[in-house]
Amino acid sequence: MNKPAAPITQDVLTIPRKLPEGGKVNLVGLTRTQLRDALIAAGTPEKQAKMRVGQIWQWIYHWGVRDFAQMTNLAKDYRALLAENFEVTLPEVVTRQVSMDGTRKYLLRIAGGHEVEAVYIPEENRGTLCISSQVGCTLTCSFCHTGTQKLVRNLTAGEIVGQVMVARDDLDEWPKPGAPRDESRLVSNVVLMGMGEPLYNFENVRDAMQVVMDNEGISLSRRRITLSTSGVVPEIARTAAEIGCLLAVSFHATTDEVRNRLVPINKKYNIETLIASLREYPRLSNSERITFEYVMLKGVNDSDDDARRLVRLIRGIPAKINLIPFNEWPGAPYQRSDWERIEAFADIIYKAGYASPIRTPRGEDIMAACGQLKSATERARKNRAQIAAEAGL
Fold first, then answer.
1. How far is residue 281's CA from residue 303's CA, in Å, rounded to a whole number?
2. What are the catalytic residues?
3. Rounded CA separation 165/61 (Å)
């Protein structure tokens, strides 16, 4: 009897959706050019537009102000014009869970009543915010809980930037007028590793990152932002040119046969094609190295032969390999590799000259670990057998 085929990746680039008709325009997520155009359309004289963009930008993204009435370097009548036409709105925090290890998971409600998750991971010398780019996911990676939730829609740039602002709100990280300048950052790094495939929502992700990187606001360096892709090859060079952030690749297998099952997009862009595009990325983006993410699945991709093949595949690419102990979820069709096996795998990679850190699972007690994100209201009610059948096991 033939095994069921692994789920096939949908070839979805854009999910059309209806925004609420009429109403005020949300300024969060607009690029400087888009903000300028919106202000002019609302009656701002063209000669003043550039200055107004700078003032409003600083209020929203440097000071974290949402109320136009508090933007005190703007004339009263201009503040009234802004309030009449615009709003500064963030996703609504539905729940906020704090793990025993300090990890914070936010369930956020966005337009249309959909929900996504973001996770803040505090560490000794940095704080990493993991954000989502889609409701659900285009991809159907068989080891990923998020991937069992079908794609609902792409997030807007405002909804992506909004996740960063929500975390800064929760951590009370906006500067206080008159207070000494604080150079330390609680949200020091952003990773696009939450729900969704960022490169299937390229324009919104690019615009959001332009806002986050702008040095007159949130001001995160492009080297503090990592975009994780499962291997949407046509968009990888474009990411280098138009975003220029660090790149991580959900690799997870060293043969097409295994990767087809774990990461079904491999059927469209196989390992050879993906590796060829990755060889060019550090040069095109002027970034230091690519991170290869590799989830450790017992008896599936964790042999010494896999480790040696991985080293051969990436030879010549400036890289580090993040080994991720599989984070189990209810009904998961895989098991985490034994610790001794993970360490033996890491040792082969390390001896070949690559950094091979083993990622410490964080936030497991609140289902906030890598691959576990999945909004509660749209959680698929599937039993173990259904998930295993879809995974081709």
1. 28
2. 117, 370
3. 8
